[in-house]
Amino acid sequence: MRILLVEDDVLLGQSMVTALSRQGYTVDWLERGSGVVTALKTEQFTAVILDLMLPDIGGFEVLKSIRRAGYAVPIMILTARDEIQDRVRGLDGGADDYLVKPFALEELLARLRVMIRRLSGATDSQVEVGDLVLSLDRQLVSCQGQELKLTNNEFKILASLMNSAGRVMSKDQLQQSLHGWEEGSSDNAIEVHIHNLRKKVPGNVIKNIRGVGYIIEK
């Protein structure tokens, strides 16, 4: 699950990248608003965390640009602006949530899980695809009640496929779900992870669409 963080406060941005990474998220971080739409155009993100007070373009304008471009990615506004009119403007402008600084990390994570649940169509903290159950709060996957013993990279790949159930994910998208904009693994490494997942996940649920990528059917 890949998060786009848009935050110009370096210390806060670094701490959020660390905290979210520890929870199993892959985080890409922008300090300006001008590159957000381009990032969404070229990459696939599970959610966006957007500060309002950016050094180049205001967060409200970034939000408007995202929605005007047709991207339905869940967006959480994270800002020190706590006036009611700002909250209303943000939510009416297309944000899915609005969290005021300073905030508790636990609340941020909980609100992020809610947005991801809505994206996947789940009504609680679990995403279910066939016999597979992904627990967003516990960061684990089980099959028919048995927890799957996965590596961190295997979990990220399986979570990405489950959250995109019914849609093909390319090798490049899976690489980005692991490493973001950092130098990532090779196609061969993705194939190795998929091979190991297929041995651990019963039922041959991960399908290879030759020349395109991988899919878990709904």
Automatic annotation (TrEMBL):
List of residues that carry 4-aspartylphosphate: 51
GO annotations of cellular component type: cytosol; protein-DNA complex
Keywords of the record: DNA-binding, Phosphoprotein, Transcription, Transcription regulation, Two-component regulatory system
Keyword Protein transport set for record: no
A biological process from GO: regulation of DNA-templated transcription
Pfam family, one: Response_reg
Residue ranges flagged as DNA-binding region: 124-218
GO MF terms held by the record: phosphorelay response regulator activity; transcription cis-regulatory region binding
All residue ranges annotated as the OmpR/PhoB-type domain in the record: 124-218
Superkingdom of origin organism: Bacteria
Occurrences of domain Response regulatory (ranges): 2-116
Protein name according to UniProt: Transcriptional regulatory protein QseB
Taxonomic placement: Bacteria, Pseudomonadati, Pseudomonadota, Gammaproteobacteria, Vibrionales
